[in-house]
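Quick question, first post here. What does this chain look like in 3D?
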Amino acid sequence: MAELKPERERADSVGAYKGVLKRVLDTRPSGTRHRLAIALGKNRSFISQIANPVYAVPIPVQHLETIFEICHFTAADRREFLAAYAEAHPRRLDVVRKAAGTRKLTLTVPDLGDARRNRLFDETIAEIARRLARFSDDQ
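> Answer (accepted):
Ran it through. Tokens below.
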């Protein structure tokens, strides 16, 4: 059986990937944390906890793809995050490394004539798609 890490070492490992998330969030426009909270179906306080390296609360693996998408992780940030995540949670390594089966869908939608309204419309469609995709997790 694999040896469990001491609590302090585990907290440091969790803090490493949370540090990457915090760094990414700190470089994104205001409102990103709020959009992330909505996409995850959580409160903004949850986002504060999962983005704070001081708290040992792990980020649930099922939230990773949504976090990467909403926060617009670069390929390098994603690799760094996943390496630290795998270090902190070795039993989840296969889940982390497994590429999610996704496909692109292109839609033709009306131009609402206002950049803000168009963005909100696009975000709403993306949120609906994320929620529908959760049905595949239940199977």
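The two ends are 30 Å apart (CA to CA).
Helices lie at 7-26, 32-40, 44-50, 64-71, 75-88, 93-97, 115-137.
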